[in-house]
Amino acid sequence: MTMPATQAANQDDYPTRLPQEQWLERKDPTVWGRWSPEAPLTRAETNAFDKNGFIVLNGVFSPAEIAALQHESAGMRSGETKLAPENVITEPGSDEVRTVFRLDEQNALFDRLARDKRIAGRVSFLLGDDVYLHQSRLNYKPGFTGKEFYWHSDFETWHAEDGMPRMRAISASVLLTDNDALNGPLMLMPGSHRTFVACAGETPEDNHKTSLKRQEIGVPSQDSLTKMAQQFGVDYAAGRAGTVILFDCNTLHGSNGNITPFPRSNAFFVYNAWSNRVGAPYAAKAPRPAFLSSRDPQAPLVIESGKLA
Amino acid sequence: MTMPATQAANQDDYPTRLPQEQWLERKDPTVWGRWSPEAPLTRAETNAFDKNGFIVLNGVFSPAEIAALQHESAGMRSGETKLAPENVITEPGSDEVRTVFRLDEQNALFDRLARDKRIAGRVSFLLGDDVYLHQSRLNYKPGFTGKEFYWHSDFETWHAEDGMPRMRAISASVLLTDNDALNGPLMLMPGSHRTFVACAGETPEDNHKTSLKRQEIGVPSQDSLTKMAQQFGVDYAAGRAGTVILFDCNTLHGSNGNITPFPRSNAFFVYNAWSNRVGAPYAAKAPRPAFLSSRDPQAPLVIESGKLA
């Protein structure tokens, strides 16, 4: 395999983990597909995604489909369904399940969900390419003690530590519980995806072992975040169970903790363009493990239509 | 001074810190005053307070008044204004000011604010009595790292640890910064003020030394909170700087942490009815110190009219 041209050090459009933080202009489109009346998103939806770096699609999955997914999810969380331990992250100081990785490999219904036309078809249109899963997981944020997740751009980490060449990936969050402003929803800075914040600081070895619980390297400074928030504002994405949120790989996002009694759970899929497959990391000695960053996909996803349940 | 009849152990309407948690009906009115067209709140506002246990009053203080208060607040936080160290609580692990107690004694403008007719006059009407300050403080929740404050009823602590006989006290929060759903606003369970959750567990000595940072005794169980949230829902109180939130002493409330860059600051006054002055604690060996619980007020507040600035 020859190394893609983008990976030659002198051609890196998104250098990061530098001595000093820098703001760089995005060098890639946000919407790679060409809109037509046959597109799986309306023109307004497509433009909103382009402008804001995210879109909230309500009522994508029916109550019956959500009930079926919740049933599978409960089985995985309760320990009833056997999971490979390396795919499970627990809450700090307890064995309560916070995240199940490689969700598509652990469970047939979630694999089917990942390949559903209502998500993967739309993402494939936005990325103008076939897609595969760079990462997939089930997130579970309990009530009362749900922890915050600090502001970050996913692409910064995927580029630096996973070797993702270009900004041509989209995350989809499928809400399995109702989510409102108060139980730790996804917060985003609309428009922030057009600026790449090259972060300060070298990548420590095995950074992912701590960064999954608390990220310290690869996040913008408080000064940058304040300026971005003043410029773009802070919005949040919420909705009933069955809602799908699509967001660009470079949109700054995070979430507050949750002391309400209402837990929050979602299935989370990162779709990368087939032409944008990962290579050697741009700013780390070794790539993160495969449960965080699929290193060797065999073929693009086979997208399927029809109801899940 | 003779002991009020309510303090005889066999007449305590609100026993708490018991071997087992219990739900008891509130034995006191929420609105003690009698509404008339001359009342300082509309009939609808008065009824809403009675029903929900809180009310949000927008635009009570003008931008010029808020600017003057913010100026005084900045002086106290920066250390420019000398403060007695026992009145200041800092963030865990730093010397950043989180709370300034005895706000009315530290600063003339905040003293005037506490006695303003637009707050104290309305509270005095709702309580149907003269009022005095049981506690007063300036709260400062920074951006990025603002910590959550767990669910509690203030009255439970004030009764158990301060010796407040009846539910006849109201807290007022004056927003000095804009506050929305995302930067850790006050969350409340509307209607929860009608139930007294008698809490499980004996009061440890000097409980306030830890409970101000993280309360563990005197809070309802997760089971109770879940039932209450299902019954009453969770609402939040937000608004522009200059908004005033009034809430009953027994309304369950808390707040999430705040990772947004937007700090949150408010002046906080607890008004107690003059006839409801504190005595010996109902469920603690010694009362909390005077900066948390004014033990010996000399006279009711003198309420003043007119602009602050």
From TrEMBL, chains A, B:
Which EC numbers characterise this protein's activity in its record? 1.14.11.55
Q: Where is the composition biased (Polar residues)?
A: 1-10
Q: Which reaction does it catalyse?
A: L-ectoine + 2-oxoglutarate + O2 = 5-hydroxyectoine + succinate + CO2
Presence of the UniProt keyword Metal-binding in the record: yes
What binding partners and quaternary form does the record give?
A: Homodimer.
What's the stated role of this polypeptide? Involved in the biosynthesis of 5-hydroxyectoine, called compatible solute, which helps organisms to survive extreme osmotic stress by acting as a highly soluble organic osmolyte. Catalyzes the 2-oxoglutarate-dependent selective hydroxylation of L-ectoine to yield (4S,5S)-5-hydroxyectoine.
User: What's the protein here called?
Assistant: Ectoine hydroxylase
Organism of derivation = Devosia limi DSM 17137
